[in-house]
Amino acid sequence: MSEAIDLLAALGVDPTLLSSGPLAARSPIDGAELGRLCPTDAAAAIGRAAAAFPAWRDTPAPRRGELVRLLGEELRAVKGALGALVTLEAGKILQEGLGEVQEMIDICDFAVGLSRQLYGLTIATERPGHAMRETWHPLGPIGVITAFNFPVAVWSWNAALALVCGDPVVWKPSEKTPLTALATQAIFRRAAARFGAAPLGLMEVVIGGAEAGATLIDDARLPLVSATGSTRMGHAIAPRLAARFARALLELGGNNGMIVCPSADLDLAVNAILFSAVGTAGQRCTTLRRLFVHADVYDPLLARLRAAYGAVKVGDPRDPATLAGPLIDRPAYEAMQAALVAARAQGGRVHGGERLLAEAHPDAYYVRPALVEMPSQTAIVAAENFAPILFVMRHDNTATALSWHNAVPQGLASSIFTTDLREAELFLSAAGSDCGIVNVNLGPSGAEIGGAFGGEKATGGGRESGSDAWRAYMRRATNTVNYSPTLPLAQGIRFNVE
Ligand code: UN1
Fold first, then answer.
1. Would the CB of 184 count as within 6 Å of ligand 1?
2. In terms of CB atoms within 10 Å, which of 59, 350, 387, 471 comes out highest?
3. pLDDT of residue 473
């Protein structure tokens, strides 16, 4: 508790926000309450963001970039404290908490450059004396709904781009991680104060539960809602956004796979598998969940993985020796155990997966990461779990492994370990992995911000972060200008009264 108070004070959060209210913030490290909060009036927050839109839309994009540059500076100044708060509230190890803040800083840098590069095309026209081009305009206030596992980075991917694109942001963080959101709001306010000309309502935080999220989904003032969470959540919200013709930027479940081929560098593969499957206690959307190992290397790789898994220190994520912190809460632990029961019933051999440290921390859920050898890709393997469970399956050729790899509903991240050029290029080709992220000789998790982030199929199709993901936050206008003294019509149509 006092650690949270100290960190929040260092981050400049108003302590009166945390002292009363019906919503409890807890740490998964020991289950202790960190503060109590009041819910925000979501409709009023949307109203403030909508009111901020005209002034922000009319601010030149490079000026908008200056605000994001200042945000990046403010984030650099508090990287340690915000990273520690992420660790306290989400339970990820400090290295990963700091990495998450670094992602925020990186996307700010990216967005500052982007603020001078919101390019449209000039297009050849078929009519003499005409010019054609496309322009990109701010879209309006946008909704951002984020999950507990990346409580601040996912906001930053959306907000940094939205802000340079001219859009105010209404953010509904996970109810499991409200404190990091309040800290981010305080950091943003410092940047806005230094900027001097940011309209009120430019970045609203909505504290609350599912009903607050529902207000964002259904409010016609938000032309785009970017939502990160489960495929179940996506099923619930996508039709509602479609019903009001809003844009949906969905980043939903992943069931990420890796194919290990006979030529693979096993030293690299072991380390990549460990980081991808055990990092963030298996609670990344990019976590490695399905491993297809060629029969020629199955036994040696499995032996090395079992040894590595046995050596993973599970415990307090603030301890520098720890590699796996706690699960977020009891329902997460129960879902993990249910998945292991199902895996056993479907022929799986489970190594690990048991609860740890229960006596010291009865209200926290630490587990030994589980390796589960499966006879085939059964129903439980095809369903995304959000826990440190790695299903391992044996294959005897890459084509078969690839067909299994693609035979799940989700399509976020994927990887292959091979030193064979043909296998690598096949995996990257149109006939290869069907995911949005396709890697060779590294794991599926831990993407940089410079690339577009997201996936296909039940992952929702959205792209956030780098490349040209910014286009989702703007509206495109196709402009044709006639600078001639005549009025030729397209397609050569004649339409004159004689
Ligand atoms: C998520 O889990 O929602 O690629 C995002 C990664 C991180 C982001 C994960 N950069 O693993």
1. no
2. 387
3. 98
pLDDT tens for each residue of 476-487 = 999 999 999 999
Residue 154, ligand 1, Cβ within 6 A: yes
- For a mutational test of ligand 1's pocket, the pick from 228, 285, 384, 463, i.e. the residue with the most ligand atoms closer than 8 A to its C-beta, is 285
φ, ψ of residue 159 in degrees (nearest 5): -70, -40
pLDDT of the residue at 332:
98
Mutate to test the pocket of ligand 1, among 145, 283, 286, 464 (most ligand atoms within 8 A of CB): 286
Distance 448 CA to ligand 1 centre (A): 9
pLDDT at 168: 98
pLDDT of residue 2: 83
Q: Is 134 a catalytic residue?
A: no
**CB of 391 shorter than 6 A to ligand 1:** no
Atom number in ligand 1 closest to CA 445:
11
Residue 448 is among the residues annotated as catalytic for this protein: no
Active-site residue, selected from the candidate residues 108, 165, 285, 435: 285
- Our answer on whether the CB atom of 285 is closer than 6 Å to any ligand 1 atom is yes
Please give the model's pTM, rounded to 2 decimal places: 0.97
User: pLDDT, tens digit, for every residue of 387-433?
Assistant: 999 999 999 999 999 999 999 999 999 999 999 999 999 999 999 99
* pLDDT of the residue at 1: 59
State whether the beta carbon of 228 lies less than 6 angstroms from ligand 1: yes
pLDDT at 359: 97
Length of the chain: 498
- Counting ligand 1 atoms within 8 A of each CB, the residue from 445, 448, 459, 463 with the most, and so the one to mutate, is 445
Q: What is the pLDDT of residue 384?
A: 85
From the alpha carbon of 447, which atom of ligand 1 is closest? 4
What's the confidence (pLDDT) of residue 17?
83
